[in-house]
Amino acid sequence: MILFAYNTSPRLQYIIDFIGTTIKVDAITITTSAEEFKKYTGPKINYSDNPVADAEVWVKPHSLLFEKGIKEQAIDCFDINGNKAIFKTTGDLPFDVFAASFYLLSRYEEYLPHTKDMYGRYAFENSLAYKENFLSTPLINIWLQQLVQVIKNKFPAFTTGHSSFTFLPTYDIDIAWSYKYKGWWRNAGGLLRSLVTGQLSLVKERIQVLRDKERDPFDAFGWLNKLHEQYKLKPYYFFLVPEKRGRYDKNIDPTCKAMQDLIRDHVIRYPIGVHPSWKSGDDVSLLKKEIDLLARVNGNPIVSSRQHYIRFNLPDGYRRLIDNGIKFDFSMGYGSINGFRASVASPFYWYDLEKEQATNLMLLPFCYMEANSFYEQKITAQQALEEMRQYYAAVKAVNGYFIMIWHNSFLGTDRHCKGWRDIYEQFIKEVNTVS
Predict the structure, then answer these.
(1) Per-residue pLDDT at 185 exceeds 80
(2) Are residues 304 and 394 in the same domain?
């Protein structure tokens, strides 16, 4: 396929590469020659202000892809076929699908002045998707389905490759065990707190676990292994391995033999990545130490990551990952609400908007995290099950990637999370039976 534009730009090349990869076409060549465009006999898109050829798909451009720098954009949402769209123009599509996709995919709005949330992150309330009520929709994928249909209407012989739906469960190991391997001082403090607050059942539970009479309530690892084997799942695990403990970094000491054995046991079974600590967001030297430590335990370089608390800001957060050899990041989502942060359910390379260049850091966006449902949205386990079903259906409808985040603490026997392990198992059974 060929695309004509009077000028090209890094932004245009980036979004055309993304679209070509996502809709599975061999290549989309950009030309600035009207004559070459007219002579081309295959499917072709005219991305200019006026029609050029008799047979073409005409998308009249917004200026965004030919601009430099970052500035406030006039955004007016409107409805098309039951979904939202932005950058209204004229042509065979009533909006500039390329500029609109770039705006959302690049997270353009996150470079503009905005309010931070309590954790110093980009607050989801700032986002266009939240304000215009399409946060729960993989809008870019839907737009691309519409684009493909318009191309087929003009060029009936046009075909795309098959896009397969992918279900990818992932786990963040923030606190591997509730009681075990924390040392006598931390356990003594925990016992004292339970006694002072009158929680005698927790005192008994802690003692029983430490005496190996009961399983640690956060220890869901064996149960998960059996579940994965039963349904032939290959999830990702992300391990928090902070050099020092802190308010938000509470995992077991990564030099502890039990913790290292746990990591090695998972390396044999699954791909693993680093879960950069809270403190590493303030001290970049800690990020390298955590990656190096995990690599030593793993025996191989660490190339995948997901930020602890989904704590990152653009562009510095992603630049740090690139500088430290990370090639795949799973942090594109919100840490306080479920939904599609970049309005897409497909992997994509990060575009550094300040440097105006595509990077080699692939982002794999998630749309569901159980901690959002539990702590932030404050819904019940049964309501969370329905929420998962809705997101799963939305992603499957566009043959995207359904990536979800769970924590081992929700999947063990901790009394505060009663019922969540059951709905997780039910969901896994449902989607694998349907698939």
Answers:
(1) no
(2) yes
